[in-house]
Amino acid sequence: MSETPAGSGIDIDDYEDVWVFIEEHAGEVMPVSWELLEEGKKLTDKLGQDLVALVIGEDIDDVAEEALERGADRVLIADDPVFEPYRADPYGAQFRAMVEDRKPTIVLIGGTHTGRDFAGRVAVPAHAGLTADVTEIDVDEDGLLQARRPAFGGDILATILCEDHRPQMATIRPGVFEAGERDADVEIDDDVITSVDVVVEESDTLSEVLEREVGDTADITEAERIVAVGAGVEGDLEPAVELAEALGADLAASRAAVDEGWIDGSRQVGQTGKTVRPELYVAIGISGAIQHIEGMNKSGTVIAINNDPNAPIFEHADYGIVGDFATVCPELTETLRER
Ligand code: FAD
Fold it and tell me: How far apart are alpha carbons 139 and 159 in whole angstroms?
């Protein structure tokens, strides 16, 4: 691919390496960053290029080191108090300058609140386009990123290509890839960590964070066991909560239950919610719509409790219990507590 497309003003051959944004807040790294780093390795293996971790924040040397221990070939760090706490303008300005200066061919960003917030501020000025909410990635022999994401309400998986521009940018849904192992024995040469100039200007810092209110902090994408409720529980969460406690599970929900306001949106599973891959997933009063299944079909053992024997959820379950949740859940909870 050496052509310069008419009017694009760029030469695609000038662009190389796969960048993964490592999202951290006050030293805590969002798990999706490590998931992307692991998946990014598959792309760089095919392309024969470097996997570069990009870290923006304050006091981030440890994060940079961990990125190398998790497989990054190089790390670029922009370390400055201006990046803590997160604000879209300084992040966007810094990221944009680094992209313009160093020209990566692919940029992967976690589809978190932060990633979704600033990715557009990088993609638009670069005329790059941005494929959002991606669930599968690959590259072809020409280095063209195949970014796949659900479309038409989840009925199809669309492959989005960015043929004429670089970088090829995507925000990736958390939880769809598995993070790799950290290898603390990796030898780190100084020359693989590059501190870049901080280019944030006063006009990028006009907003100020006055207060930070932390809501429901549960991260169901990390849960090993999940008890999920749907519209069928009609607002009566108690039987599911007790079952979750007996199982040591996190509570989650279908969109219908979230829309009713019974449970926080951060716990929604599915196409417009989270993708989860627990070892155990108990679906209570959930019909099994495709948009829900999409978020939980990587689970280990699935148990469905539903009073309709024809509910589609049973097609995706390893064990099905046909009955009223208000009777079935307490019986299961009692049995578990007796053990
Ligand atoms: P319902 O479909 O109403 O099912 C309720 C189930 O409870 C039924 O099967 C019923 O038999 C059972 N039930 C009733 N009473 C009892 C009882 N007493 N005991 C046991 N079982 C009982 N949905 C998601 O979940 N996540 C998403 O991310 C998502 N994204 C979407 C994106 C788009 C673009 C669209 C169009 C839709 C999306 N949806 C999503 C909505 C999805 O299509 C379904 O409407 C939703 O999943 C239904 O939720 P539910 O199964 O809880 O409710």
Answer: 11
Order the strands of the 250-253 sheet from edge to edge. Answer: 250-253, 225-229, 280-284, 301-306, 319-322
Q: Are 307 and 322 in contact (CB under 8 A)?
A: yes
Torsion of CA 235, 314, 243, 30, to 10 degrees: -90
What is the tens place of the pLDDT at every residue in 26-66? 889 999 999 999 999 999 999 999 999 999 999 999 999 99
Whole-number pLDDT of residue 9: 73
DSSP string computed for 279-301: SEEEEES----HHHHHHHTT-SE
334: Cβ below 6 Å to ligand 1? no
Size (the chain), residues: 339
- Nearest residue CA, atom 8 of ligand 1? 287
Q: Cα-atom radius of gyration of the chain, to the nearest Å?
A: 22
Q: CA-CA distance, 232 to 247, in Å (whole number)?
A: 21
Quick check: helix, strand or coil at residue 43?
helix
Residue nearest to atom 17 of ligand 1 (CA): 324
Pocket flag, ligand 1, residue 228 (CB < 6 Å)? no
The minimum-distance atom of ligand 1 relative to the CA of 253 is 25
**Which of 149, 156, 264, 271 to mutate for ligand 1's pocket (most ligand atoms within 8 Å of CB)?**
271
pLDDT tens for 305-332 read 999 999 999 999 999 999 999 999 999 9
Tell me which residue has tokens 């989650």: 252
